Amino acid sequence: MADMDTETITHTEPMAEEEEPLFSNLDLFLFSLIVGLHVDDILLICVQGKNIIVFYGSQTGTGEEFANRLSKDAQRYGMKGMAADPEEYEMGELSRLSEIKNSLAIFCMATYGEGDPTDNAQDFYDWLQENDDEDLSGLNYTVFALGNKTYEHYNAMGKYVDKRLEELGAKRIFDIGLGDDDGNLEEDFISWREQFWPAICEHFGVEASGDESSIRQYELKEHTDINMNKVYTGEIGRLKSFETENITMPYDEVLKISESYSVLQLSIDKGHSLITFCDFRYESGDHVAVFPTNDSVLVNKLGQILGVDLDVVISLNNLDDESNKKHPFPCPTTYRTALTHYLDITHPPRTNVLYELAQYASDPKDQENMRKMASSAPEGKALYQSWVLDATRNILAVLEDMPTLKPPIDHLCELLPRLQARYYSIASSSKIHPNSIHICAVVVEYNTKTGRVNKGVATNWLKNKLVTDNGHKSTVPMYIRKSQFRLPFKATNPVIMIGPGTGIAPFMGFIQERAWLKQQGKEVGETVMYFGCRHKNEDYLYQEELEEAEKNGVLTQLNVAFSRDQEQKMYVQHLLKKHKEDLWKLINSDNAHIYVCGDAKNMAKDVQTTFHEIAEEIGGMVRTQATDYIKKLMTKGRYSQDVWS
C-alpha cells in the first residue's frame, strides 16, 4: 500500500507543545506480546513500528515462507510488515492491535496431520478454543490457509482461525484464501495475493505505488579475516553443536527391491553422544525429524555455473536493524555450507524467486518469461506449470536452461527457502529398542521430462552415509515429534492395522510393543495386520519379522495383498471386504481400534469407504449412518490415520 503515511499508522501526530512519545501503540503492543525473550530482544522489537503483522503456523516451512513474502510486500504499499511466529508471542494481547490505525493481522495457517494445528501454532489454537470472553472487536484480519485436498480435514486450521476470530469480534477485511498442495499451492497463493493487496488499499483508502522493483532484505558482508571457530558449518542450533551434541547412526542395510523401487531400512543409534535436538525417548507411533544435507554434486555445479568461490566466508545481514530476524540462515558461514545445509536447492523455485531473479537475465525474452511466470495471468500460470513444475526444474536446472541468467549468489541465497527437516514414522518400539530408532522409507529417484535425474534429499543422503567417516561415527541431526498415533491404553483391546508399502513402518513398532507386553505376561487383545505391496518376491517389507510374529501368536492374523502377482489387482481394501464379518465383530462388539498408515490420496480414502460399506452391509446401516459411525470412531480415538500425499 504505497503512499500510506507510516507516521499516521504508528502514532497520532503530537500537539505542538507535547513531546513525541518514545513508543507507539503498536510498539507497546509488541512489547506486551513478546514473551520468553531477553531484555535486549524486547527493546529491539519495541522500536520497529510495524503495522502489518503476518502470523504463521508452519510445519514444513511453506507457511513461514508465504508470511515472509507478504510482510515484504507491505513495503511496496507504504506499510511496514513483519512475519511472526505465534509461539513466541502472548496472543492474549492480540486485541491491542485494534488501537493502531490501519493495522492488520494476517494469518498464514497450515493444517498438519488430521486437521491439527502445526507445532508452533498449538498454543494459539488452544487460546482461541479456551477464551470465549475475549473481545477482538476492532482487530482487522485475514487468513490464508495451507492444506491438501486429499486429507479429510482440508485446511481445517485456517478455516477454524478465520471463523473463530470473527466469533470473537474481529473484522475480516478480505476473504480467506484456500491453498491446495495437491493442486498448485503456489498458484493459489499468487491468485489470492493479487486480489488481496488492491482490496487492502481500497479498505484503508491508500494508493499502491506500482513499484514492482526488487527489494533486498539483506546485505552481503564478506569476512576476509575471521576466526573459523566462529563460523557455522551446518549447525541448526548453537555454534559447534555438531561436535558434541549429535546422534550417532550405525546402519542396518539398504534393501534393493527392484530397478524402480528401493526401500531404506536403517537405525539411528543413541550411542554415547549428548542430544540437544530433543530427548531421545520415544513411543511407538512417534515421528523422527531428520535434518538432511544437499548433494555435494548439485552444490558444486551451482558454484561453477555462477562462477563463485563457495568457500568464501560471508554474512547476510538484515537491512532493517530493528528486525528480530538478523540473518536468513546461521551466519557467518560459507556459501558452500549455506547451499549444503541451510537452503532448499532441489525443489522447483517458487514464482517470487523467479520474479526477483529476472533482472539478472541479459536476454529480455528470458526476463519477460520469468516475470510472466510470476503473474496470475492464465498464460503465465500455464508457463510456470509446464516449464517449472511439470518439468520439475530445480534452481540449478533453471540456471542451466536459461544461460543468460547470472544472479549474484548472495541474492540467490537470500531468496531460496530454508532446507526443512524430513519426517518419518518410527518403525520400532522403545520397549525393545530403547537406544535406537528404526526408519523405513522409499529412496526417491526419478527421471524428469528434461532428461535429468532428481533424487530425494534425505533418503539418498542417508542411503549414501557411511557408518564411519575417517574413523568417526557418522552423525545425524534429528529430533522426535510426538504423535497421537498410539496403541490403545488397554492392551486387551483388539487392534486392526492397515499399512501397505512403507505405511508398515509404525506398525512394526506396534507389533514389537505387543510382543513385549505378552512377554511381560500381560493379556493382549487380537492384533490384526493388513499389508500390501506389488510383488511377494520383490517388495514384501519385513516379511521375516511379520511371519515370525504370526508364528509366535503376536499377530493373530497376517493378511497380505500382492497387487501385481495375479491378473486381477488385489489391494488391502479388497482383503478388508473379504473379512467383513470378522472385522465388524472386532469393531462393533469388541471395541477394536483401527489404524491406517500410508497414501492419503487413494489408499486411505478407499479403506475408509470400505469400512463405510462394511457398516452398511453387516451393520445394517444406511450410508449416512455408516459415515457418522466411522466419524464417531475417529472422534473417540478408535480410528487413527498417519497418512501422507
Overview of the structural elements:
By secondary structure, this protein is an alpha/beta fold. The chain is built from 23 helices and 27 strands. Helix 12 (364-373) crosses helix 13. The protein starts with 5 loop residues before the first helix and ends with a strand. The relative contact order is 0.09. Residues 1-47, 246-261 and 271-278 have low confidence and may be disordered.
Summarize the model shown.
It catalyses: 2 oxidized [cytochrome P450] + NADPH = 2 reduced [cytochrome P450] + NADP(+) + H(+). It is found in: Endoplasmic reticulum membrane. The protein is α/β, with parallel strands linked by helices and 645 residues long.
Short key terms for the protein model shown above:
single chain, 645 residues, alpha/beta, five-stranded parallel sheet, 23 helices, 35% helix, globular, disordered N terminus, NADPH--cytochrome P450 reductase
Beta-strand percent range: 15-25%
Rounded to the nearest angstrom, the distance between the terminal CA atoms is 37 Å
Low-confidence stretches: 1-47, 246-261, 271-278
Biggest sheet character: 7 strands, mixed
Counting DSSP E segments of at least 2 residues, the number of strands comes to 27
Task: Explain the layout of strands and helices.
Blueprint: H1 6-10, H2 25-33, H3 39-46, E1 52-57, H4 62-73, E2 81-84, E3 104-112, E4 116-117, H5 122-130, E5 140-147, H6 156-167, E6 171-172, E7 177-180, H7 185-204, E8 218-223, H8 241-244, E9 247-248, E10 253-258, E11 261-269, E12 287-290, H9 296-306, E13 313-318, E14 333-334, H10 335-342, H11 351-357, H12 364-373, H13 378-390, H14 395-401, H15 409-415, E15 422-425, E16 436-442, E17 445-447, E18 453-455, H16 457-464, E19 468-469, E20 472-473, E21 475-476, E22 478-481, E23 495-498, H17 505-519, E24 527-533, H18 536-539, H19 543-551, E25 557-562, H20 572-578, H21 580-589, E26 593-599, H22 603-617, H23 623-635, E27 639-644
Parallel strand pairs: 1-2, 1-3, 3-5, 5-6, 5-7, 23-24, 23-26, 24-25, 26-27
Antiparallel strand pairs: 3-4, 8-13, 9-21, 10-11, 11-16, 12-15, 12-22, 13-14, 17-18, 19-20
